[in-house]
Amino acid sequence: MTGTILGAPDIGRALTRIAHEILERNEGPESLVLLGIPTRGVPLAQRLAERIAEVEPSFDAHARCGSLDITMYRDDLRSQPTRSIGPTTLPSVGIDDATVVLVDDVLHTGRTIRAALDAIKDEGRPTAVQLAVLVDRGHRELPIRADFVGKNIPTSRSERVHVRLAETDGEDAVTLTGGRA
Amino acid sequence: MKHLLGTQDMSRADATLILDTTAQMAATQEREIRKLPTLRGRTVVNLFFEDSTRTRISFEAAAKRLSADVINFSAKGSSLSKGESLKDTALTLQAMGADAVVIRHWASGAADRLAHSGWMHGAVLNAGDGTHQHPTQALLDAFTMRRHLVDSPEGKGLDGLTVAIVGDVLHSRVAGSNIALLKTLGANVVVVAPPTLLPFGMASRTDISVHYTLDSALEAHDLDAIMMLRVQRERMTGGGSGFFPSPEEYTRLFGLDRARMDRMPDHAIILHPGPMNRGLEISAEAADSPRSVIVEQVSNGVAVRMAALYLLLSGEEAPSE
Q1: Same domain for B86 and B146?
Q2: Is B318 within 8 Å of A79 when comparing Cβ atoms?
Q3: Do A72 and B38 touch (CB under 8 A)?
Q4: What is the pLDDT of residues A7-46, one digit of tens each?
């Protein structure tokens, strides 16, 4: 399976559905905070927040949205080329006693999320942490699962999932490349 | 980057990467929990052949904030004062498993020697070698200036800014590192010093403006930042080595006081690498004025050193491309 798996309309629908699921699960937006993991988790978190605000006008999308860089919490810093550090901007309301929804583009091994949980611990003490991802491609290496998934895409380890977003790449698309020839 | 030895050979891309990383490190230092797990299990050795409190504790704080283990090795009361050679010290550090060595040495070129000798594998960070280089000081100065004087600074240099460096440029490794880095980042450099305290050949350089009194520099340039160097009393004494007639005359010609401060544009900032000689190169009024960023330089110093340690120690075992 190679090629485009999700187009712009599919991504839009998936995000709308996740926004509703987040509201249902948490019985409203009162204590919700969305934290995107750079690079592409950040615009996804902003889009989810805007959709939540459309449903619940009391929800201030701008004040409840932030980014959480996890580079310095990774467990592979020695073995991978040096990564540049992204910005961490916490929502103005803070994350203490909030329900934090972590947002990332692709859930794969789970190691990024493990690092994100450590990073959150150093930033504050939320009541609960939930995970929303656009794509779950399997191959977990840690006991971590997503609460909200845009699309499950079965992949082989040699394949690569690319998420492209209008904010960072000029278009919305999820593509799959590679795989054994 | 494998080592941080000086700023002369540093590319603009590397310099801005360090400054951008510094900005993220500085942001983590405003949190409640300032410690990061990034360098857990790594060992950083502070190898100080020359007295230095500020630089050593700054590197120590930086390494500890990143969870590295820190070993302080200073000349006094150690094997270094018993005449051990740099080579034997390096072999000892290698055997102890040092991942990075921060070296301050009285001899120019000591850090370079340590890095390229093959005596040890770890990264070498130059924390000042003789009258040669002090790269982390130049980087923290550049970071401080960029933060105050450049809008949305990420990814940018110091293009078009005019920065004056005032004082003992001849003996100052801070000036040596700063001039090279400021030029790399696109700033105009103005050097103000007595002719006796200028390095050989600097007065004929066309890419630097040289002035022999602070007043003429203030007359000729709209400064965005002024960097006062410490008069290094320990290098000024001794028979026949008078570089200027008297401290009073130095203050009169090169000291930054209220009147001179008021002649700078309103946005201009005052830097000093410390420790200050109040009343000699800088008046207390200037040092404590709202334009002074001298205290902020200290906290930025920790962030710069965190960035340097992170960039040198991560990706160490990555397959080379």
Answers
A1: no
A2: yes
A3: yes
A4: 999 999 999 999 999 999 998 899 999 999 999 999 999 9
